[in-house]
Design a protein that fits this description.
flat, 6 helices, mainly alpha
Length: 117
């Protein structure tokens, strides 16, 4: 396989990239050091209030099963060498893997989402 020569990156693009990272960093520090954003107690009134099979807010919890299925399927698919080799090369796998890991992270909010309010 022939190697693709790397081309030089435009200095203007480099400056914009650093500017965006800088602005993002300033915003992140501001959010960490700023006051806490209060949330009204009535915020969760839209949630399903029914208990089923001993699980409060049952249908809100069950609706997260889709995230579990997609997250597990995507992470396994991306990391399997036989399935991912056709579509992704080694460098492309990791961003997709962390995306599906983030989808799985949504599932981790179940305890707080169902029993916390």
């Amino acid at each position: 396989m022939a190697e693709i020569p790397l081309r030089s990156v435009d200095p203007l693009i480099q400056k914009w990239k650093w500017a965006l990272w800088g602005i993002g960093g300033i915003i992140a520090v501001g959010l960490l050091l700023g006051p806490r954003i209060a949330q009204p107690l009535s915020y969760h009134q839209f949630a399903d209030q029914r208990t089923f099979l001993g699980i409060p807010h049952f249908f809100d919890v069950v609706s997260n099963l889709g995230f579990l299925l997609v997250g597990v399927w995507g992470a396994v698919y991306v990391m399997k060498a036989s399935a991912g080799a056709d579509v992704l090369n080694r460098e492309e796998r990791w961003p997709y893997f962390f995306f599906f890991l983030g989808v799985l992270g949504i599932v981790c909010q179940w305890p707080w989402g169902s029993w916390g309010y």
